[in-house]
Amino acid sequence: MKKIIIILSFVAGLGFSLTGCSDYLDSDYLFDERLSIEDVFTSKDYTNEWIARAYSYLASNHLQDVCSKKSMPFNFADDMYFGDESDGYKKWKSGQYSETGVLGSNNQSEMVWKNAYQGIRQVSIFLNNIDLNKEFTKEEIDDFKGQAHFLKAYFYWFMLRLYGPIPLLPDEGLDYMDSYDNLAYPRSSYDECVEYITGELVKAANLLPLSRSIQDIARPTRGAALSLRAKVYLFGASPLYNGKTPKMAADALVNKDGKRLLPEAYDESKWAKAAAAAKDVMDMNYYELYTAPRRDIAIDPFAYPATITPPADGDFSEHAWPNGWKDIDPFESYRSLFNGEIAANDNPELIFTRGQNQGGENMKVLVMHQLPRKAAGGYNSHGMTQKQCDAYYMNDGSDCPGMNDMYVGQSGYEGRTNVLPRPADFVAAADLANYPELGPQGTGVSKQYVQREPRFYASVAYNGSTWNLRNYKNDADHEEEPNVQIFYYRGGGHDGYKTSTYWLRTGIGIKKYVHPDDISYTHKTAYDVSRIKFKADPAIRYGEILLIYAEALNELTGTHSIPSWDGSKTHSISRSVDEMKKGIRPIRIRAGVPDYSADEYGNMDKFRIKLKRERQIELFAEGHRYFDLRRWMDAPVEEATPVYGCNALATESMKVQFHTPVMCTDLPTIFAEKMWFWPINHTELKHNINLIQNPGWTNPE
């Protein structure tokens, strides 16, 4: 009977619920029914297949931080949007959602829960049986165990961000074929989740190597485990999870036995733990920000121009990297980090990635949704809000004229607006020499978009920007051209508003991740990814670790002694401006913008505002903003604020009106109390009598 149970459990693809997850059968993962669990884990090939299956859950569309999947609301917050069709973003933001799966097509909330717990089950069985295998060396088995601990932590972490406190399953002694009632575990507290996940990551770090070969680039390293640990601690220290939760949510998140799931008291030491965890990564001296060397002569005046030197600031302008920008190209440094110009294994900043082109809604598909229709054959549907466009600095570090002028007087925007008028004129041919950042053909571009910081030009497809499309072809079937200036005015053959669903609702597109060679045509067929360059998913990178360090230090009022991850030393953690600069200055130097002022460093509140904006810019479109707004408890202001953009209904003859921000009624905004956390699907709640629903959502009848 025991062998039959093992066979059934194995053949089922690990689909039986452990916490209320439904009984799923993975038909694409069936093994020979004659195999026992011992047969599998004494075979080298089957063991490799088992761990590969665990990775497949992590690479699924539903568990990707960065992808083009329109039905996953956490891909879109107040910074970007998916414009076409009736997608999950619109349903979420307009209130058309329910606990039974109307977050988007294919019941996304249920799919996230399902895939994560299937992944957890997969690696749990792996950890309990890998020692049976005698075909691997001890070093190989230790590496496998480290990978499994990391994967388990990542699955839990993904759910923790979306659902809040979740059920933690015992590592050993769990009968996978037990009844649903006996497997009905209640939700653990948030602090318990943090402690467990970070504990798994320490186990992983002790077993994982420092680096991987190019063939194993998507497998975690010690740095990946320690970096994820810093992220988990950062969230645990943030207001939503650290004694400042809104009362409605805090009072509702109580298990049926009366156990409160969120802490009632604020604990400053949690910030110290986050800072120390980030310092553990920094002290490895293994990672660094990626920089491209200064280019004094253009390789291609459109796609690879000569370096544009930022205005002198008396500090960064006087020194070479890493103390200044004299010998680097800030624009190319940021652009190449994401667009596939450098391979994942050559990127010193990339700490963890799911690999290049993973999943059905992968990075290539993401770019295809960003490419214009007219010249590149893209969907022209991933767009940027005016708020995000305004967040980018001018090249001298000042705010752009008119920044957030649409929100003047609104609560939450005090000190975050620039009431100087937006430029109302446009670049003429005679002006181009004054604006080298626009390239050789910037004629007709609004002067709102000139002299901005380098990250702006690497990220923003402003009206009239040039798309390089160097991978063009000319043949009998289809004639293409490179270096096309794309405008978003209505009509006239532009990529703006038309009867098609594919147009940018704000008149502002996205260039981040787009390589100069990317194009999405195959002869006369659009929407083809074969001519889009491979690019790695930036799941965790060193720039984020530096920002975690600076943010966590800023919140401290005392000094805390925190052991390092392996206990080899003790960190003395306090709010030190010199230490905060170690986190912020490299980011600012690489970006080609000046350092903050002494007043901004010296004032906790002012630095917090600057830090939040730095994350908004530096980490744009990397899957952070949705979660940042929640952990900071800024979502009720930022996500309920109307979305503004250019007037996409204006024609080319109405240039000034086009560039005057208007409310985009096609992009609804709302923030209800229930939107702090995703709902748990009714299917899961029915299977687990001890599982409580998230605040504001209904329980099954």
Q: Top keywords for this entry?
A:
two-stranded antiparallel ribbon; mainly alpha; 5% strand; 12 strands; 701 residues; two-stranded antiparallel sheet; disordered N terminus
Summarize this structure briefly:
With 701 residues, the chain is mainly alpha-helical. The protein has helices spanning 2-11, 37-41, 44-58, 88-93, 108-129, 138-163, 190-207, 222-237, 247-252, 269-282, 330-338, 363-370, 373-376, 386-391, 454-459, 542-554, 577-591, 598-602, 604-618, 625-631, 635-638, 655-658, 682-687, and strands spanning 80-82, 350-352, 382-384, 460-461, 465-467, 484-486, 509-510, 540-541, 560-563, 570-573, 644-645, 662-663.
If helices are DSSP runs of H or I spanning 4 or more residues, what is the number of helices?
23
Contiguous low-pLDDT stretches (5 residues minimum) are 1-31
* Beta-strand content bin: under 5%
Q: What is the count of β-strands? A: 12
Mean pLDDT across the residues is: 88
How do the strands of the widest beta sheet line up side by side? 1-3
Shape assignment:
globular
Query: Structural class of the helices, strands and pairings?
Result: mainly alpha
Distance between the termini: 37 Å
Rg (C-alpha, Å):
25 Å
Instruction: State the major sheet.
Output: 2 strands, antiparallel
User: Helicity range of the residues?
Assistant: 25-40%
